[in-house]
Description:
By secondary structure, this protein is an all-alpha fold.
Amino acid sequence: MSLPPTVxxxxxxxxxxxxxxxxxxxxxxxxxxLYIMYVRILSKNLSLPKKLLIGLATVQLVSxxxxxxxxxxxxxxxxxxYVDGPGGADAYFGNxxxxxxxxxxxxxxxxxxxxDAILAWRCYAVWGHNRLIGAFFTVLVIVAFxxxxxxAAHIATLGKNxxxxxxxxxxxxxxxxxxxxxxLASSMVxxxxxxxxxxxxHLSAAWIIVESGLIxxxxxxxxxxxxxxxxQAGQILSCVLTQLSLAVPLSIAIRAASKWANDHKQSLPxxxxxxxxxxxxxxxxxxxxxxTGASMGSTIAMAxxxxxxxxxxxxxxxxxxx
Length: 322
């Protein structure tokens, strides 16, 4: 199979790894903050599903942190330890069989596939725990895991002088499978909401679902395109994608947990965080609310039950009440 020609003006491999590591650090910090918020929300009245969600998030955070540490150690080796070696940093980062690179791919595949599994579960929950949908996405997720780990194992067996882009079938497979899961899951959730919509506010809730998964899907498409074009710049987005695979599911779960807390008349254990009910009471009293405000009013509840719920009672709707 012939490969596409190399795109001109691409950055070098060392620069791609350096920029990717610098961008990944702040994203990891954001993920740590999201994880703390996530655990504090779900730690009240722990049930088995909540324990499972916390466990998966913990595995993802550990994988994301391990990936970042591995990238940092790789940068130190390439720019400091091996800089005076044969070929310098270019030769070091050009060797894709080095142990730290393969380990980074392993952590990336783990984090990435778990993120896709959570997005698939979201679709499964919204569709009322439909067994056919559950079985379908289970197969896709398992195949994605297999493709990811097989890709890491395959890269480890390449020769030092073998170009990574010359053996790209498994790498393309993992991104293609992941993209299928993300697009299908988000589309099916939006379709389900659209079918049950009775107002434009329900449709705005559908766009919340689209936007939450659109970031991850866009990054996946970008990495896949850059890889097919033989561009080293794809390494930058690969580092970003490792952290987004955790950030997106955490953000969705925090929003769902917030709605669950409001439905059960419980306040979230977060200082400075205003619940939907409190926002509604304050707005009726004419007070200014500092916090999430009306944006929380359109939160989708997917973690606590199988129905699509949009809390409209606490939102200011002047166009409907005028």
